[in-house]
Specification:
This protein has no helices and 16 strands. The protein is an all-beta fold. The chain has a single domain, classed as Sandwich (Jelly Rolls).
Length: 198
């Protein structure tokens, strides 16, 4: 069971009500939304992975270069329990000084947590990418363009209540600079051949 959100309007996302921060812009020719890395973000009043014991969270995005030191850490897809901040998952990136980025994913489930910090897997900015965070039976993995970069063990308890932030961390920090086209949440662990195409 999947829920796919195409980011090409600012009235709603995936049929869900949203709260807009700043002035994100719809880029029609790219069928995406542009975020400025300063104060643009969206909160979707929905958790598309509610109740999922195993899951795949995918995003198609285009990160941009930035000279702003506040843009180094960008937490751009974040699902969190509305009453328990210790129940959350994030897809993040880190910018490097040589105009590259690398993926950083995180799961926190009360006393269990894991960060996959893929600094050994840099990618150039200003290109479209697909990233996926996959969890199945105690194992968390993440992928860029269908290639597995890191994995590890974490005990995950399903987030049954929650909202989703796009372009920022849900507490309105760590802003993303670039474009986001699609987010898909699947309540099962997909194989790379089942991922979205860019």
């Amino acid at each position: 069971m999947s829920e796919q959100w195409k980011l090409h309007e600012l009235e709603q996302i995936g049929g869900h009500p949203i709260t807009i921060l700043g002035t994100p812009v719809v880029v029609k020719e790219e069928e995406s939304i542009q975020f400025d890395g300063v104060h643009d973000g969206i909160i979707v009043l929905s958790n598309p992975l509610s109740g999922a014991e195993n899951f795949t969270l995918e995003v198609i995005f285009k990160p941009e270069a930035s000279n702003d030191p506040n843009n180094v850490e960008q937490r751009f897809v974040h699902i969190q329990n509305t009453v328990n901040e210790n129940s959350r998952m994030l897809i993040e990136l880190r910018l490097t000084k040589d105009n590259n980025w690398f993926l950083d994913t995180f799961i926190k489930s009360d006393d269990s947590a894991l960060t996959l910090y893929a600094e050994k897997f840099p990618h150039p900015v200003d290109k479209w990418y697909h990233a996926a965070l996959v969890y199945e039976n105690g194992t968390m993995k993440h992928f860029v363009n269908g290639i597995e970069e890191m994995s590890g063990s974490v005990e995950y308890v399903p987030i049954n209540e929650g909202h989703t932030s796009i372009g920022m961390r849900i507490n309105q920090v760590s802003w993303f600079k670039g474009m986001i086209k699609t987010i898909r949440a699947t309540k099962s662990a997909l194989k790379p051949e089942e991922f979205l195409g860019k």
